[in-house]
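stage 2 :: seqdesign
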């Protein structure tokens, strides 16, 4: 689908606070895959305006895995929604994969998400009446791919997350960790460039959470993804390329305390 020129124009490289935060472990790219400058987001409430961000900046290079931590209500999920064209900023510029996502029409935003973004949420949101294989194939079917081709690609992804033998099982027949692995396969079946994960291990016990995070890390590397993960698990955040804290509407580096990060949440 052709996009309007403002949405498709390459993003200018913004000089942001994030340039000073980058850890440099992800390999240089001509342009960061994510460039956010002057981002503000506010909501009107019964008690007046609620400001989540004011003049927030962020740059993420292709290949990075960036963890974002912060207190509940700090706006972490809202930030992911804005990056993934699920929500619009109140002000500022948001370029993702060289697209100004803030200027997309709803139809363009849906096509952009299907093409460029993979989402994993705290809850798996699998459709209970469909099998694991059918759930993974859903994004391909929505794209217009034939059922036969979609199921074949989905089967490969289930094998990759270690669930090839559970393809015919419905979500209610799977464990919590297995359900989240199916959700991860579904998020990546369209081969997006960017993975956005909102507390992807938040509903899992510590051991299962570690295994799911290991899988995300492996798929991130083997498929050349750029990933942004919101998490309360400081130990897992510390294993990312870069860990940032969202506080007071601003992003800053998350510094490891003496002895390393605890596994417990914030």
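stage 2 :: out
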């Amino acid at each position: 689908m052709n996009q309007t020129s403002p949405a498709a124009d390459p993003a200018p490289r913004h000089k942001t606070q994030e340039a000073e935060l980058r850890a440099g472990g992800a390999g240089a790219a001509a342009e960061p895959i994510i460039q956010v400058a002057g981002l503000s987001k506010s909501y009107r409430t019964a008690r007046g305006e609620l400001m989540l961000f004011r003049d927030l900046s962020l740059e993420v290079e292709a290949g990075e895995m960036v963890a974002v931590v912060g207190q509940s209500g700090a706006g972490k999920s809202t930030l992911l929604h804005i990056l993934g064209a699920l929500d619009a900023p109140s002000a500022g510029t948001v370029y993702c994969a060289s697209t100004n996502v803030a200027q997309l029409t709803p139809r363009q935003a849906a096509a952009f998400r299907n093409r460029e973004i993979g989402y994993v949420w705290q809850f798996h949101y699998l459709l209970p009446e469909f099998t694991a294989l059918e759930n993974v194939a859903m994004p391909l079917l929505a794209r217009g791919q034939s059922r036969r081709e979609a199921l074949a690609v989905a089967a490969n992804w289930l094998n990759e997350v270690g669930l090839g033998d559970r393809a015919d099982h419905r979500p209610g027949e799977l464990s919590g960790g297995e359900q989240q692995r199916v959700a991860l396969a579904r998020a990546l079946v369209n081969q997006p460039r960017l993975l956005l994960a909102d507390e992807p291990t938040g509903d899992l016990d510590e051991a299962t959470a570690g295994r799911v995070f290991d899988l995300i890390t492996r798929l991130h590397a083997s498929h050349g993804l750029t990933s942004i993960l919101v998490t309360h698990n400081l130990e897992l955040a510390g294993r990312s390329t870069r860990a940032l804290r969202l506080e007071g509407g601003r992003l800053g580096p998350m510094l490891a305390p003496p002895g390393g990060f605890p596994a417990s949440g914030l």
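stage 3 :: structure notes
- The first strand starts at residue 34 and ends at 45.
- Residues 202 and 226 are 21 Å apart (CA to CA).
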